[in-house]
């Protein structure tokens, strides 16, 4: 029997017991596909019934023919009592007619505050005017959780790049324009404002064929479709295309292209700019809604509509005018600058779910060394845990003593270890004295966990069984001990496990049942999840990449047969006799809210808000409901983990990779793309994912290289290992019981990996410098081509190529079976010079906007250098520590006028506040390269070589600080236009950046 009540949302599992083989302890057997498949040993455990996670069928309003359009029935508001302020104006907004109460209770009296907060930022805030019985259900996001930007001194409308006007015709609306060209950036004209306690709707018209980017997290192309809906509700759902997944980032960029006349005075909006002979200019502005509620953003052909299930309108517009300007302003003023990463985190990381014990982990590490593939960090998934519990290792398979020996060996070799930590805490069985779990006990003592409405512990289910969930909101708002407890647990665990960083998972926050299903059922703990794990009977991993059947016909046929059998059996046992679905709908109740099933149903992939997640009416200490804070759980656990690692590693930068994120999470952590699939499509989608997270202010991004779900193959893994070598976070990871996909599994992948890793490790100083800039000013690391080349509208949806900083362009092959790839070379119409990384010669004969066919045989990834850049490099080693001890080099890619610039950032690579830093500025002009160091960090590695590309003619002499270099130090290659200097080490005995120097050729 199951019991649901609208007030408590409890779920009691008084069910016929279902037992499975115990989930604790591993043995292995050979599965159908030849993969190693885990089987469980010893005690049987109760399995949470699958029905516990079904929830009620909810039809999203955007697909519901019975849904009411608020614009057709709601009255809007009228502005009165308008008062100018020093930096803006205020007004009262009063309901302009009878309340519509369509998806909640209308709030009749609102306050409008407009602020010109900075020269490039406008703030529009609309919230309830009164706090009292008539507005008892209003909510404004606490600044203790998400700080709001403040006004800069001396800013007003006259200095702002934008203007704002308002009207009451026929109801209140506002319009924001760019002063420079009178372009309307955001306007609510022609719509009515809807403001209810469980539903807010506002929007803006958009120009034809608009270019919007951001609004995530979602798996989608980089440029957003103009006939789609983005849902922001953190969900443990895997990487589902065009659906809400882990994070919530209510921010977008809007890029608009204009044709200009000869003198640049007249601009005309270019809706379909394909004429490569025309002259274009672009402007980008940004929009951020500081609201953490469940949201939908409707992208219609001519407008954008924002719908939220609560909160307030707290809107920020950034004028740009470039995408980089918007990103910088968003981070600098609003969400915070990205965390500076330790140098070692830019090395290669290896993980999988299914490393059964320390011995297997050590074998993997040894295999990387055997095949001479750099390995920086080994990771472990939930396999290492004692019965899937945080902060406790399995005593048999991952003992502390054996782990200490392995981790000491790793650290002696300057390698690192990162374990996973899940977001739910096991609740021990009260009738089993051997099931004691001190982490839980200490958490209860600290009031660290979420509650049911009646004050009892909210108990859901995750990997270890019935679990409780940390209450980060209670800690931030009401001062509970949650964060202090979390910090202490890491401190205790770190004494047994010498980890170097932390991987936070399941932080949406996920629960494998609807409601407080563990309440009254803890005597069943530990329990098995309500689904079969990969490799268990009926859930063998038999998926292979597209095209696998072309080269592996027999194995593909066998896998297909097993897959059909599994699907057919599953369907046969679960098919319903019903041919119709009875959807659950709710209507507003005057004076109250239904938080479990709001009247407006968002297009949540899981269905109702409480499915596979902690229920909306779970209660935080102090009385706040999870309904208001669901999208912030992942954000706040990253904050708490950051503080915990600062405590464990005093003075060092924490390294954290998290799954669920919100606006501003980048100041604490990086992000990986979640549970993708070993399919070519997901390799492609990794690029727009990464570019979107550049917009979101989380540059430390990467995906599960070669794919997480399913089986990879040598072709896909070869391409993917090379592509991910140019992502900031570089990790290979796959699922339990799938075929192994470490890069040494296939000989072809070994070769491809080594080639790409060599380039990456050569570029580590350049990448580290990009991160230093991101940390200091909010600039991006991975960049869209359109950001760097603003006057080429045909790049608006380019997401199969990308830039690493401003100097490196990557054009990966993303198509199965292909040996070539199409790519554009931006800027060539305005004199941009591109050099092939491999032969260091100029790319000739390309036209603006031309899609060029580029050779890309398997094992080769096309990489190009943009003229005008000086790129510092360092000879690679097997670890980043070894690389940092090697000699320096410079790649100088001259532009068409013989100029180039660049920078290098140096510090100790780990300190939160380094004692010493050095910046080196490089400049090339008039056949002269200068290096100018600034700072006190000492690097004693010499400069070994300099490669100058694009030197038009052979020099007769080369000088270093005015002294002629012997011809043994340099050569010139006429066909390639290359000046090569080698063996310079002895000329820099105290280090390459000890003092200013100049290299000239003539």
Automatic annotation (TrEMBL):
Domain Glycoside hydrolase family 31 TIM barrel: start-end pairs: 338-770
EC number: 3.2.1.20
An individual GO BP term: carbohydrate metabolic process
Bias kind Low complexity: ranges: 565-589
Main enzyme class: hydrolase
Location of region: Disordered: 561-589
Entry-linked CDD domains: GH31_MGAM_SI_GAA (cd06602), GH31_N (cd14752)
Protein name, per record: alpha-glucosidase
Organism of provenance: Bombardia bombarda
């Amino acid at each position: 029997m199951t019991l649901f009540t609208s007030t408590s949302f409890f779920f009691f599992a008084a069910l016929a017991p279902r037992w499975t083989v115990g989930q604790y302890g591993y043995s292995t057997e050979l599965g159908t596909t030849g993969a190693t498949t885990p089987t469980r040993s010893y005690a049987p455990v109760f399995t949470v019934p699958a029905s516990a996670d079904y929830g009620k069928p909810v039809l999203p309003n955007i697909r519901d023919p019975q849904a009411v359009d608020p614009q057709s029935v709601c009255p809007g508001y009228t502005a009165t009592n308008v008062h100018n302020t020093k930096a803006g104006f205020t007004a009262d907004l009063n309901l302009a007619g009878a309340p519509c109460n369509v998806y909640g209770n209308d709030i009749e009296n609102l306050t409008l505050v407009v602020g010109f907060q900075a020269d490039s930022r406008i703030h529009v805030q609309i919230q309830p005017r009164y706090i009292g019985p008539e507005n008892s259900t209003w909510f404004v996001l606490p600044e203790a959780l998400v700080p709001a930007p403040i006004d800069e001194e001396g800013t007003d409308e006259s200095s702002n790049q934008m203007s704002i006007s308002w009207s009451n015709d026929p109801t209140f609306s506002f319009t924001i324009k760019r002063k420079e060209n009178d372009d309307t950036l955001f306007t609510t004209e022609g719509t009515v404002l809807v403001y209810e306690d469980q539903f807010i709707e506002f929007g803006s018209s958009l120009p034809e064929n608009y270019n919007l980017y951001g609004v995530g997290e979602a798996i989608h192309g980089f440029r957003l479709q103009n006939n789609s809906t983005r849902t922001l509700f953190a969900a443990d759902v895997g990487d589902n295309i065009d659906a809400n997944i882990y994070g919530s980032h209510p921010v977008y960029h809007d890029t608009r292209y204009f044709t200009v006349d000869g003198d640049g005075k007249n601009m005309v909006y270019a809706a379909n700019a394909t004429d490569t002979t025309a002259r274009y200019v672009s402007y980008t502005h940004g929009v951020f809604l500081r609201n953490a509620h469940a949201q939908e953003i409707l992208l219609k052909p001519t407008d954008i509509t924002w719908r939220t299930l609560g909160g307030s309108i707290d809107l920020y517009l950034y004028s740009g005018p470039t995408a980089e300007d918007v990103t910088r302003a968003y981070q600098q003023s609003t969400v915070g600058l990205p965390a500076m990463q330790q140098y070692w985190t830019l090395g290669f990381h290896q993980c999988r779910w299914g490393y059964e014990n320390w011995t297997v982990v050590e074998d993997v590490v040894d295999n990387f060394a055997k095949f001479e593939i750099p390995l920086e960090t080994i990771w472990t998934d939930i396999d290492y845990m004692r019965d899937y519990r945080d902060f406790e290792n399995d005593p048999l398979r991952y003992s502390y003593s054996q782990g200490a020996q392995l981790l000491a060996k790793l650290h002696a070799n300057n390698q690192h270890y990162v374990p996973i930590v899940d977001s739910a805490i096991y609740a021990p069985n009260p009738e089993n004295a051997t099931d004691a779990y001190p982490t839980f006990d200490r958490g209860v003592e600290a009031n660290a966990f979420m509650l049911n409405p009646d004050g009892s512990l909210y108990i859901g289910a995750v990997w270890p069984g019935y679990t409780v969930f940390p209450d980060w909101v209670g800690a931030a708002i009401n001062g509970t001990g949650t964060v202090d407890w979390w910090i202490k647990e890491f401190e205790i665990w770190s004494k047994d496990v010498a980890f170097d960083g932390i991987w936070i998972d399941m932080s949406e926050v996920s629960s494998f049942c609807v409601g407080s299903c563990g309440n009254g059922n803890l005597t069943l703990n530990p329990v098995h999840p309500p689904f079969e794990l990969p490799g268990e009977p009926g859930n063998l991993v038999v998926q292979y990449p597209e095209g696998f059947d072309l080269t592996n016909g027999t194995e593909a046929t066998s896998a297909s047969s097993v897959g059909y059998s599994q699907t057919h059996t599953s369907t046969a046992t679960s098919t319903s006799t019903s041919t119709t679905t009875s959807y659950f709908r709710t209507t507003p109740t005057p004076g109250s809210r239904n938080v479990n099933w709001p009247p407006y149903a968002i297009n949540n992939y899981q269905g109702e808000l409480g499915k596979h997640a902690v229920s909306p009416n779970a209660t935080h200490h102090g009385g706040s409901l999870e309904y208001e804070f669901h999208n912030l759980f992942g954000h706040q656990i990253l904050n708490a983990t950051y503080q915990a690692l600062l405590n464990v590693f005093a003075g060092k930068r924490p390294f954290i990779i998290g799954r669920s994120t919100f606006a501003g999470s980048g100041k604490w952590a990086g992000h990986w793309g979640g549970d993708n699939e070993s399919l070519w499509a997901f390799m492609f989608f990794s690029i727009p994912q990464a570019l979107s997270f550049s917009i979101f202010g989380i540059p430390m991004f990467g995906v599960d290289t070669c794919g997480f779900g399913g089986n990879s193959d040598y072709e896909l893994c070869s391409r993917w290992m090379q592509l991910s070598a140019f992502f900031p976070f570089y990790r290979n990871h796959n699922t339990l019981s799938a075929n192994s996909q470490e890069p040494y599994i296939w000989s072809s992948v070994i070769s491809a990996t080594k080639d790409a890793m060599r380039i990456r490790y050569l570029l580590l100083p350049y990448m580290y410098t990009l991160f230093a800039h991101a940390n200091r000013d909010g600039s991006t690391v991975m960049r869209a081509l359109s950001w760097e080349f603003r006057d080429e509208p045909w790049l608006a949806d380019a997401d199969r190529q990308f830039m690493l900083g401003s100097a490196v362009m990557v054009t990966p092959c993303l198509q199965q079976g292909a040996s070539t790839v199409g790519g554009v070379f931006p800027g060539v119409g305005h004199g941009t010079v591109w050099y092939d990384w491999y032969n260091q010669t100029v790319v000739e004969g390309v036209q603006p906007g031309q899609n060029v066919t580029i050779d890309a045989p398997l094992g080769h990834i096309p990489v190009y250098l943009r003229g005008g850049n000086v790129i510092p490099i360092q000879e690679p080693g097997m670890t980043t520590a070894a690389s940092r001890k090697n000699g320096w080099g410079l790649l100088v890619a001259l532009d068409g006028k013989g100029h180039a610039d660049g920078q290098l950032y140096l510090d100790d690579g780990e300190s939160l506040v380094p004692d010493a830093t050095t910046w080196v500025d490089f400049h090339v002009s008039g056949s002269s390269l200068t290096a100018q160091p600034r700072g006190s960090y000492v690097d004693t590695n010499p400069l070994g070589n300099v490669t100058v590309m694009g030197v038009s003619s052979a020099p007769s002499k080369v000088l270093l600080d005015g002294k002629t270099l012997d011809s043994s130090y340099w050569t010139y290659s006429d066909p390639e236009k290359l000046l090569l200097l080698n063996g310079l080490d002895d000329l820099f005995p105290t280090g390459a950046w000890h003092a200013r120097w100049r290299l000239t050729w003539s």
